[in-house]
């Protein structure tokens, strides 16, 4: 009579629907088996069990008992959220007819104390000693709704105080207790039989990494099996004698239609020269060739770090490496992470071209996804989603090289798609204790992971990156880290953490402290090795001159005589705006462009495209132009200046900025700019730095950079030497007594900030994978997410893994006759938000408010004012998926807006500014 227990229920248009518990368990078990065979990579299977058949048995057993906790009075008496009492009563009648007498009279004091995941874990511990001595299977069952329990004491607490929730009676000898226990044994025995185990003790004990993968797989299977489009409920009066073969086949095929990509079955010939030519149309350079050979020659390559100059093709080298690593590690996807949305956008078309070549070679089509908060603004990606053929019944489906899998469009499932490009946050959140973390681990453990521009991450983010590397090591996931500049201590730390995840207790860090450049550092099984012999690379000598902001206009006067495209990169938005206004006032005849982060998103995209079209490799270069910008220029844009002026900044970032100086070979540069020159602003011999620069980078790194920076730099020859000098704290500076006091204070502040960042990061950071039992801690998932971050959304998670001040992002609109519009239009849009095109255009017009409005003491008031405005004026947005809940800053017809007492003005040329600010 187990069929009397319900798993799902719903009332629709007065008709009652339900799903018996055995049917849902069977649905989930079968889907798990199909996902094991047709979705999971062999590399993931090997983490679960070396014998893939045994691993599949364990996965299907776990799915077959995952909702055993629903076979309890506490669950069966739960009221539906939206159905009438009649449905609840009819289902209770079924229970009574099945022999559960008096259940309709049962009153439980605290049914909420035994959610069905926890109840399932308790029941398993009662049913068999296997689940009492080891909590591996139990913690998966207990955690399948997002988070395992925090403390094993919860199990004994339920047994002691809430037994009635599980068995309807506290008397173990009562008939009703035995009836529920019979139901539990029947579910257990069915799961054992259907998965091929004779008894519970035959089930192998799982490692903690294996449990995490199976928890993710079970969650995925449960979500699919709980989707009523794939697996519909049945009418309350319909027969429960269901053709499960047909039901499962139909449901899985429906899911496959929303996930119509092929599993990547990588092939690699070992001939990297030919592969480079096929994929990218050129022969590999020496560094690229040796990188590919390193991966090929290694028996079990794990973490591979490539340090090489800008413009040498690290991305292409990494992608060739990905193809070889995928074969060696039996992975079937790629995650390519970058520091910013802009850099992610920039690399996305290149990844798409590479994937297209793979798809055409193999005759497959693969899922491709851009994952960050502004992906919908990327024209290349949105055009891809429009052209992608989702309907696999169509005869044209096979014409596409890749598809946009609809099932993976959700924020928690996007990382599980086959090929994902996005911000590095998507990887860092692998180390954030957050609900449904196992899904992220499932998605990333399926892939090869590539992280670019590793030098761009601070001490706080490194704490999450180090822990993510440990878990990736535990999953034997190959990782490629790319950097133009990397302190050797960071290099050794990355290698150390990855090998810790593989169970290596100690490495020889000194062997990794090489100053050579370029450099490949990699792991092979439990060893860390380096490759440092490369063909000489021709240096580009950059002359460095020093000046200050007061002389800037006079310097520009000199630099632009005879033509030239000048790049000015400063450390704050306010300084960039002030310079742009001064330059425009003095040089009205010269084209002046401004680029920073305080533009409306759509304007920033246009500005970046315009600059790339003018100053890119094949751009239509003007005779004379001045570009003023902030760090956004150093991070993402492929533009080429004839001469550059930059605020003093940490040496690795300064080198990144130099990458935009004479970036491409040109024969037509103005005579004055035939040789590259960098003018550095604010390098004070007295260690007195501008307040804005100190606020962003701190005086310590600015002082060390200024000390070691000379009158010229050879790129790439001097890169490693400079970076190691600046970041090696054992190299002291020869300073006068007065400057020593100032420098020591800077150092003390720096060390305090770094230590504070590390401490804060550990608050919600995941612990290291537990590969062996320790005192007080088993190798199960109990306590895995203890002290969980309460961040519920993807955006909040992104913020959690970056140590940045809270910011407030709004949709920036302006009033017009009849309502409101965007800054790109004069037509009222307020009456047309039911149009997806209009709503999307409004949603795209986002901007971050000035930091002045998001300080700890006033951010709540800022948000409250914006929320009140929404409730009063924008409630119609509740009907739009694009706009619902979005905060809005409404500017007047003169582009002015006041929020929380702060007056702002928006200008298409200068961006957002605070009025009256000095």
From TrEMBL:
Entries under CDD domains matching the protein: Cas3''_I
Give GO MF terms, alphabetically: ATP binding; hydrolase activity; metal ion binding; nuclease activity; RNA binding; RNA helicase activity
Q: Which keywords fit this entry according to its UniProt record? A: Antiviral defense, ATP-binding, Helicase, Hydrolase, Metal-binding, Nuclease, Nucleotide-binding
Q: Give the Helicase ATP-binding domain ranges.
A: 295-504
Q: Where in the numbering of this chain does the HD Cas3-type domain appear?
A: 14-224
* Similarity field: In the central section; belongs to the CRISPR-associated helicase Cas3 family.
Q: Which residues cross the membrane?
A: none
> By which gene is this protein encoded?
cas3
User: Which GO biological process entries does UniProt record here?
Assistant: defense response to virus
Q: What name does the UniProt record give this protein? A: CRISPR-associated helicase Cas3
InterPro entries from the entry?
A: Cas3-like_dom, Cas3_C, CRISPR-assoc_Cas3_HD, CRISPR-assoc_Cas3_HD_sf, DEAD/DEAH_box_helicase_dom, DEAD_box_RNA_helicases, Helicase_ATP-bd, Helicase_C-like
In terms of SUPFAM superfamilies, this protein maps to: P-loop containing nucleoside triphosphate hydrolases
């Amino acid at each position: 009579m187990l069929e009397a227990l319900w798993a799902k229920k719903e009332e629709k248009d007065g008709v009652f629907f339900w799903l018996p518990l055995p049917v849902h368990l069977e649905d989930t078990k079968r889907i798990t088996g199909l996902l094991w065979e047709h979705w999971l990579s062999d590399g993931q299977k090997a983490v679960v069990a070396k014998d893939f058949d045994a691993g599949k048995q364990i996965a299907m057993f776990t799915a077959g008992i995952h909702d055993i906790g629903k076979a309890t009075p506490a669950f069966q008496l739960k009221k539906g959220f939206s159905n009438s009492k009649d449905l609840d009563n009819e289902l209770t009648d079924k229970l009574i007819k099945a022999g559960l007498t008096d259940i309709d009279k049962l009153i439980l004091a605290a049914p909420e104390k035994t959610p069905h995941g926890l109840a399932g874990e308790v029941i398993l511990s009662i049913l068999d000693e296997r689940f009492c001595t080891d909590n591996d299977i139990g913690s998966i069952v207990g955690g399948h709704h997002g988070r395992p329990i925090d403390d094993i004491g919860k199990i004994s607490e339920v047994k002691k105080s809430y037994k009635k929730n599980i068995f309807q009676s506290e008397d173990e000898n009562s008939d009703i207790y035995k009836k529920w226990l019979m139901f539990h044994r029947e579910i257990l025995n069915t799961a054992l039989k259907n998965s091929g185990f004779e008894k519970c003790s035959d089930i192998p004990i799982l490692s903690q990494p294996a449990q995490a993968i199976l928890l993710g797989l079970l969650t995925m299977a449960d979500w699919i099996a709980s989707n009523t489009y794939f697996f519909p409920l049945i009418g309350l009066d319909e027969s429960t004698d269901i053709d499960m073969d047909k039901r499962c086949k139909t449901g899985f095929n429906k899911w496959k239609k929303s996930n119509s990509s092929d599993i990547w079955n990588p092939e690699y010939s070992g001939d990297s020269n030919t592969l480079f030519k096929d994929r990218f149309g050129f022969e590999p350079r020496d560094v690229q060739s040796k990188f590919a050979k390193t991966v090929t020659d290694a028996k079990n390559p794990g973490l591979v770090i490539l340090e090489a100059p800008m413009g040498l093709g690290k991305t292409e080298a990494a992608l060739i490496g990905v193809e070889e690593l995928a074969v060696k590690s039996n992975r079937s996807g790629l995650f390519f992470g970058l520091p910013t949305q802009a850099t992610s956008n920039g690399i996305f078309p290149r990844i798409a071209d590479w994937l297209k070549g793979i798809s055409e070679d193999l005759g497959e089509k693969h899922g491709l996804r851009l994952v960050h908060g502004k992906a919908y603004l990327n024209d290349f990606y949105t055009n891809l989603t429009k052209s992608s053929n989702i309907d696999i019944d169509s005869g044209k489906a096979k014409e596409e090289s890749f598809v946009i899998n609809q099932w993976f469009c959700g924020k928690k499932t996007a990382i599980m798609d086959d090929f994902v490009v996005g911000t590095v946050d998507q990887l860092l959140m692998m180390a954030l204790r957050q609900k449904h973390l196992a899904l992220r681990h499932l998605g990333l453990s399926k892939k090869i992971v590539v992280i670019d521009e590793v030098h761009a991450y601070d001490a706080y983010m490194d704490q999450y990156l180090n822990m993510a590397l440990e878990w990736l090591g535990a999953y034997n996931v190959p990782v490629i880290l790319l950097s133009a500049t990397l302190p050797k201590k960071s290099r050794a730390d990355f290698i150390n953490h990855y090998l810790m995840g593989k169970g290596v207790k100690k490495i020889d860090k000194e062997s990794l402290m090489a100053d050579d450049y370029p450099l490949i550092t990699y792991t092979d099984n439990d060893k860390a090795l380096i490759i440092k012999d490369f063909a000489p690379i021709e240096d580009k000598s950059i002359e460095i001159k020093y000046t200050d902001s007061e002389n800037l206009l006079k310097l520009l006067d000199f630099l632009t005589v005879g033509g030239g495209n000048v790049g000015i990169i400063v450390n704050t938005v306010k300084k960039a705006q002030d310079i742009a206004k001064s330059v425009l006032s003095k040089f009205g005849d010269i084209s002046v462009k401004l680029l920073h982060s305080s533009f409306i998103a759509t304007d920033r995209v246009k500005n970046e495209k315009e600059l790339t079209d003018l100053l890119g490799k094949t751009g239509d270069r003007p005779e004379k132009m001045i570009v003023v910008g902030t760090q956004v220029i150093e991070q993402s844009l492929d533009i080429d200046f004839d001469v550059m002026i930059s605020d003093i900044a940490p040496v690795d970032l300064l080198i990144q900025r130099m990458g935009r100086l004479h970036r491409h070979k040109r024969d037509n540069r103005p005579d004055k700019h035939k040789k590259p020159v960098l003018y550095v602003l604010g390098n004070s011999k007295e260690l007195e730095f501008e307040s804005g620069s100190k606020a962003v980078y701190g005086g310590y790194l600015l002082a060390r950079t200024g000390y070691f920076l000379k009158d010229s730099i050879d790129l790439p020859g001097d890169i490693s030497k400079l970076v190691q000098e600046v970041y090696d704290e054992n190299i002291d500076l020869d300073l006068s007594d007065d400057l020593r006091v100032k420098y020591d204070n800077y150092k003390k502040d720096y060390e305090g900030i770094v230590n504070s960042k590390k401490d804060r990061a550990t608050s919600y950071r995941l612990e290291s994978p537990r590969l062996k039992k320790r005192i007080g801690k088993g190798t199960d998932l109990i306590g895995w997410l203890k002290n969980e971050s309460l961040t519920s959304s993807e955006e909040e998670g992104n913020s959690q893994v970056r140590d940045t001040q809270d910011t407030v992002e709004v949709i920036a609109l302006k009033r017009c006759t009849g309502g409101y519009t965007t800054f790109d239009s004069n037509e009222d849009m307020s009456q047309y938000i039911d149009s997806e095109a209009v709503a999307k255009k409004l949603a795209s017009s986002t901007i971050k408010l000035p930091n002045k409005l998001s300080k700890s003491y006033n951010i709540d008031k800022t948000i409250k004012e914006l929320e009140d405005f929404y409730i009063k004026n924008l409630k119609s947005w509740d009907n739009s998926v694009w706009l619902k809940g979005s905060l809005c800053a409404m500017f007047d017809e003169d582009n002015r807006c006041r929020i929380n007492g702060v007056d702002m003005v928006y200008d298409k040329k200068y961006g957002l500014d605070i009025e009256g600010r000095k």
